[in-house]
Specification:
The complex is a heterodimer of chains A (263) and B (481). Chain A is an alpha/beta fold and 263 residues long. In chain A, 38% of the residues lie in helices and 26% in strands. In chain A, the strands form 3 sheets. Chain A has a 6-stranded mixed sheet with strand order 7-10-11-3-12-13, sandwiched between helices. In chain A, strands 1, 2, 4, 5 and 6 form a 5-stranded antiparallel sheet that branches. A two-stranded antiparallel sheet of chain A has the order 8-9. Classes of the chains: A alpha/beta (263), B alpha/beta (481).
Amino acid sequence: MLRIRNLSASIDGKPILRGLNLDVRTGEVHAIMGPNGSGKSTFAQVLAGRDIYKVVSDELTFNGRDVLGMTPEIRAREGIFLAFQYPVEIPGVSNLYFLRAAVNAVRSHHGLPELDAVDFMSQAREQAKSLGIDDAMLKRSLNEGFSGGEKKRNEILQLKLLEPRLAILDESDSGLDIDALRVVADGINAMRSPDRAIIVVTHYQRLLNYVVPDHVHVLLGGLIVRSGGKDLAMELEEKGYGWLDERSECKPDRAQPSSEVAS
Amino acid sequence: MSKDPKTMNVLTQEYPYGFVTEIEEDSVPAGLSEDIIGAISAKKNEPDWMLEWRLRAYRQWLTMKEPTWANVHYPAIDYQGVRYYSAPKQRNNGPKTLDEVDPELLRTYEKLGIPLQERELLAGVAVDAVFDSVSVATTFREKLEQLGIYFCSFSEAVQKYPDLVKKYLGSVVPYSDNFFATLNSAVFSDGSFAYIPKGVRCPLELSTYFRINARETGQFERTLIIADEGSYVSYLEGCTAPMRDRNQLHAAVVELIALDNAEIRYATVQNWYPGDKEGRGGIYNFVTKRGKCQGVNSKISWTQVETGSAITWKYPGCILIGENSTGAFYSVAVTNNYQQADTGTKMIHIGKNTKSTIVSKGISAGHGQNSYRGMVKVLKNAENARNYSQCDSLLIGDKCGAHTFPYLEVKNSTARVEHEASISKIGDDQIFYCQQRGLSAEDAVSTIINGFCKQVLQELPMEFAVEARKLLGVSLEGSVG
């Protein structure tokens, strides 16, 4: 579904991603782990089309189609979804209104009729309930005055309503207490499907206790320095990132085969 | 952020109302003198007291200087080069029914989407359409008359309800008020008049649609609305003007009077021709609007969406005299390309327990300059006066400007006055967030702008709010993208 070869990205001339390779197949859940500043969020933003980065790649395709040529909204409508680490506030725009606009933008891209306010409301309510989001929160301005946990849950609500093909979750667990973490994790798990791939970007192994990945990759200095199964996450939790010394950066290709073998 | 190619594309839509109607016009020569004023008055067959009032204003005006304190810049206006009266020629003393109205005129209104036909009753709008200087048709008048509501052109009111006009004309905005209001008092051509009798709740939204058509004709409307005790009225004013390369002058005066327990809601969507992308042409809009909450518990609210005009100079205000009276001002002002707006309000608290609310939203794009200028004055006897002011500015691009000039004058220690101001830019991160959810950059911007203006738009009647939203989108097209 997603094929990445030699992906590099820089901002203001400063390289952040330096030749990254990755393959993600439908039905898989991948975890991207790494310390602060390793390029995890950049990776997520680049996939979604944030244009503040200069991006070069031998190949970046989604279902065989070139991604770099697509605007962010086309990527979104084609089914690439990013749950933001820091969802922005948009004052005065009701959460519900925004959700419906988003869902209808995707629907009309696929030639489906738009949902009217009533139909949408009942769908949204049902999904919102499972995430502990009440009507009041649906009616509030988008992310405005939301607590950190509310913002994260709201991102998961969007994920559920938009039903993307590829979901990229950027630190969806950060700042959550244990109950909220469970709610978010349940939301993500409910979206696991043979038709969908999920990339979980996270700092800690904590979330992966709940959302068990098929593959774990370690991002360090803009490269995937190691890939493995879910046990790799445990190992990282135990040893930290220090043991993956700088030398492993020189062997980006190590990452590739293991993820291919595992799939 | 204007450097970002993705955020640089929403202000290019052409002004869609720039057509000119070919109609024989009945007008006076350009220039201003006592003779011209006499001629205007004579054309309208006005009584002597009206002419005298105009002449008093004119003599006052000759002693006045054009104000220069506003944060707007324009070449000197040649007041002798303006034609002060222009009316479509009529077959004989004015149309009695819509059938008698020039079909060309009706087509113009149709293009503007004004509901002039009786069938539009369903839309709940009664229109007093002012075409250049003369009110062409007034609909629903009969229905309103049954309730004792007078809704007609100002000229007609002078003939039919002289006592009301005499009593209230100039009682809120005196003829000597300011340069532009005084000019208006001398030469005003027509406008709307409404009187709501005691205890009557006006069942329709009253509406006036102004349109400047003739070349180089200044338009000087005069509107007077009186809400008698315990009555209620909601009034809508919409404006468009055809495209011209020359600048045109517009100096209107609106006076509102609310007696005991009465409420007036006055809404404006102003979409005069703003000039082209290089700043050529466009309307100079110098308007004096003021409401007087004369009675106890009376309420007046001004809601405005200002997207047009090359220059806007406008401060709809409230004089809060009656105890417990309430004034409100909700405003969205957009300046794009080379538009300039200096707009805000004046809230004068005179009576006890008077309250006022000010919500101003300024949006600047292109080279637009947007100034909020607001005065809150609490006089000595205004015990427990309350004011809340909020003024927010939104910038699109890096060549535009937003300015805030609040003036507070409080002479009573029990008063409470709050002022909040904010200035923000549409963030690339906000646009990206919306795009990541499937919205185009244009939709993202219009969503963000509508959110920014929500507090004001929700004060508008439903149909008007829809129109205003569209207008905001059109006005800002090309500024971001």
